[in-house]
Prior knowledge:
Elements: H1 4-31, H2 52-72, H3 77-110, H4 116-130, H5 133-153
Helix pairs in contact: 1-2, 1-5, 2-3, 3-4, 3-5
Amino acid sequence: MFEPLVFHAILIAGSLGAIGLGGGIYETLLVDPLWPSRPKLIQPGRGGINRKLFWGPAHGLFEVALLLAVWLTWAQPGIRIWIWLALAAHLAARIWSFTYFIPMAIRFETGRAGDAATASKAATKWVRLSRWRLPIEFLAVLFLFIALAKSAGN
C-alpha cells in the first residue's frame, strides 16, 4: 500500500541529500582547486566565503529528514534497509568530517594552520581527501532514491 507520508519523507530526505551533494560538487570543482593557494577565499574574516552558512543548515535539515524517514519506515523492512544504508553512508562521511575535515577547515578559515608552507601542504592534503566524501554522500542519496522507488511501489 502506497503511504504518502513515507514517500514524501523519503523524497524530502533524498532532495536535501542531493542539495548537499550538489554543494559538495560545487566546492570540489570550483572552490577547492583555488583556495589552497589563496586562503582568503575561505576566510570569512578576510572577505572570503562563509561555508558554514550553507553547510550548517544543509546538514541539519538533511539529518532531521533522514531520521524522520528512518522512523517512518521502521515497520517496512523492504524500504527501511535502504534508509539504514543511506544513514550509514552519511554517518561515515560525517564522522570523518567531524574528526578531520571540520577541525582542519576551522584552522584554514581562521588562519591558524601554521606557516605558509605547512598550511599549503595541509590544504592540498585536505582537498585531495575531501574528494572522497562525494562518492560516500552519493551512495547515501542513491540509497534514498532506491527507498523512494520502493515506497512508490508499495
